[in-house]
Design brief:
By secondary structure, this protein is mostly helical. It has six helices and three strands. It is about 65% helix and about 10% strand. A hairpin with a 6-residue loop joins strand 2 and strand 3. The chain starts with 13 loop residues before the first helix and ends with a helix. The mean pLDDT is about 80.
Length: about 180
Amino acid sequence: MPTPTKGPRLGGSPSHEKMMLANLSASLFEHRSITTTVTKAKRLRPYAERLITIAKKGDLAARRQVVGKISAKNSTNQAIIHELFTVIAPAMAQREGGYTRITKIGNRKGDNAPMAVIELVMEPVSPKQAVVKEAEQAAAAPVEEESVEEVAEDTQVEEVTEETPAEETPAEETSEETEDK
């Protein structure tokens, strides 16, 4: 969790900041991507990711927590919360974090404020990341298990070498048979 900033919070009081973050997160869940200032996007990221983490639980208590964070007194926000629990949270089930992506897009024309696009990462976790996890787990495995695997591989190699002379044996027998004749 990021350290809270000191002084004015996004140009208003703390209660105003909470309402802005609630509205921004509702818009993010509704549209999957919004354009805002870099500062607001950076403040929105942990707030929205926390809501998604709560929504991944999927129970009634989690739904009530999210309703408490996003004021769901109107039908639009109720629909957004329903979509969060039925569409977004199941899509993020395999992901362990990093549900949002911030991309800087340049400065705003009027006041030259730095702008960014914050969007939900809806793509499934790539198989490459799963392979990396398996490799990390294999590297963390004890050395004893690796030596057992090496012994098993050596045994397989010996079996192959034993089969090779057996294949040559019929050829030798045929040469002996020709000599007898």
